[in-house]
Each structure stands twice: as structure tokens, then as C-alpha cells.
Amino acid sequence: MKISVEKSSIFKSLSYVQSIVEKKNTIPVLSNVLIQAKDNNLILSATDMDISITAQLNCNVIEEGFVTVSAHTLYDIIRKLPDGNEVEFISNDGKIFSIRSGKSKFSLGCLPKEDFPIIEVDKLKSEISIQSQELLKLIEKTRFAISNEETRYFLNGIYFHMRESGGNQYISIVATDGHRLAKIDYESNNKPEDIPGVIIPKKTINELCKLLSDYNGTIKIDLDPNKIIFFIDKSVLISKLIDGNFPDYQRVIPKDNKNIMTINRNDFCMAVDRVSTITNEKSPVIKFRLLKDLMNMTSADSENGLATEDIITEYSGEEIEIGFNSKYILEMINHLTDEKIKLSFNDSSSPVIATEDSNQNLIYVLMPMRV
Asked: Burial letters for 184-212: b for 16+ Cβ neighbours within 10 Å, e otherwise?
């Protein structure tokens, strides 16, 4: 193999590919990236056996070939080369991989390319097309609510499914950790019966967002109950899905929250942030007291003392005292964008709903804490 490529061109593709590679691997070749040079293209591939990624870029191929080298070492070398430099890759026997750029020369050991797992891009049962930035927006509005508890593995991802409502078809994306729930709908031309509901793992979601953020165009998604494939520009991301049953989230969304408060989002956010200064990890709760056109917030800690603040609202419902995790409240309202948002309450022991007028398809639900 002998190729020449511009640093910025390979660095971007390599950054996507190396990020799925685990730092420690019991199977040595999984620490490597597979580099294929053919037809004036360089194809980079990596996998952890659950997620695989392939990225393709144009380059000057002087001699075609295959090689596998340490993904993280190669990435660090390319990252530290001067911008604008031309980079040359040479491998004569598949055992030593040489990198030359300017006055810098590196040699890396290789593992047999035959040991690298074959990454199969299958034609799956169902196919969806969607704009990259639309999908990114849907994910960014919901992924903060993904659970990190490994014991509830079926919550360690985003639930992606199709549903029908009012004669319209929607892609629905839902995330929950049992304490809060985020759901957003996107009107789609795809038929619900053709698309299985699937749980996309958190790691896949994180890698997907990196790819989506750098591309503006239509992407294709192939999926079946076991696998999902994203075709994004010249990159292909393949992932296994979480094998489990996502809870019936519709049952969690209250239908009878009739006490509706309208509040300035920015003022609310800053007030919660100030009052939460007194809280700690063991006791992160803030007590909210809802009065006519007024919300009183209080936090207390046996060591640090007491904080309280009033904020003007638009509210004429029942007087309610309710407690919430301050971190969860802040994350929720920071993912809303309207100047004024709506908070809907039922009573002191029921979940609150947060919505905004500009995005009727977005809903956040937060469970209360005992105060």
C-alpha cells in the first residue's frame, strides 16, 4: 500500500472511526482501524462488535492494499501533524505501517488484516429517509433523559418508533430514566406498520450525533428488530439494538394536569440555578410553592443553610407544594427554547409536564421528589 492524502481530510474521517474503539480490548485487532486503499479512495473501518463504522474519503492511491493499525495511535499522530500537511502511508508487507509527513516519520506495527471482523452492510427489512439536521434536533431534545443504570438496560438508549395520530404518520423518539421522560414527534411519510420499534444504544446515539453534526443533507436509515444502519454522506454507521421491551411510556404522561403555569424560561432557569447552590448530591431537591401569579422556590441543607427566591408567573390554579430534583429541572428547561414555557401540574405527588408553544410535538415529564 502507498497513498497520499491531505491531513484535514483524513483527520475528520479518522476522528469518527477511532471514537468507537475501546481503549482496552481482550481481542487485540479490535483496537485497530482497518485501512483499505483502492480506486483512489481510502476506506477506514472500526468496530467493537456492537457498533461498526466505515468512512470513505478521496486520496491519491499510488499502490492499493489493506492494513490494520492501532486506531488511537494513528489518530494521535495525525492530530499532531501541522494543518495543511500532506500525509503519506506506506506498507510493503502488512507488518509495518509507515507514516510520513514533512520531516516527521513514524512506524507502527500491524496485525493481520484477515483477523479483522468483516463489517457487513446488509439490506434490512425497513428503510427511512430523513434530513440529517432534523434527526439531530430530535435526538438532542431527548438524549439527556437516557438512563445510565446498567440494571435497567432497556432504558440505556432512545426508543425509536413510528406511530399514527390523527391520520398523520410520526417518527417518535423517547428517552427516560424512570425519573424523567422526554418525547418528541416528527411527521413522516413512512408507514408505521413497516417500521419496527427499536431501542438504539446510548453509545450509538453519541457517535451518530457526531456524524450528523457535520453533514447537512438527506440520510437513509435501514433497520430491523436486531440491527440499524445509518448511511450518512460517505460514512456508514452500523449498530446492534438493545434487546428488551421499552416501557409503555404513554401511561407515564399525565392526561389530567389542569393547573397550568406560564413562566419566563430564562428567569426560571437562573432562579433555579441560584437556589440550587445550597443543594448537594444527597439532597438535590428544591421545593416549589405555587401561588397566584407567583412561584416560591426553597432549598435547604443542614450544613450549608437555606435559599429561597420568588418569581413572577402567570398562574391561577390550585395552591400546590411540590419538590423536584434541581439538576433535572435545569436540564429540562435548558432543552426548551421559547421565551415563555408552560408547566402543567395536577397535585403535589403527580408528575409535571413542560411544553412550549413553538414545538407542539415536544413534551417533557418530570416525577416529583418528597420534600
From this structure: bbbebebebeebbebbbbbbbbebbeebb
* Secondary structure (DSSP) of 217-279: SEEEEEE-SSEEEEEETTEEEEEE---S----GGGTS-S---EEEEEEHHHHHHHHHHHGGG-
Within 8 A by CB and 6+ apart from 302, the residues are none
Per-residue tens of pLDDT for the chain, all 371 residues: 999 999 999 999 999 999 999 988 889 999 999 999 999 999 999 999 999 999 999 999 999 999 999 999 999 999 999 999 999 999 987 789 999 999 999 999 999 999 999 888 887 788 899 999 999 999 999 999 999 998 899 999 999 998 888 888 899 999 999 999 999 999 988 765 678 899 999 999 999 999 999 999 999 999 998 999 999 999 999 999 999 999 999 999 999 999 999 999 999 999 999 999 988 888 899 999 999 999 999 998 867 789 999 999 999 999 999 999 999 999 999 999 999 999 999 999 999 999 999 999 999 999 999 87
Contact 45, 119 (CB under 8 A): yes
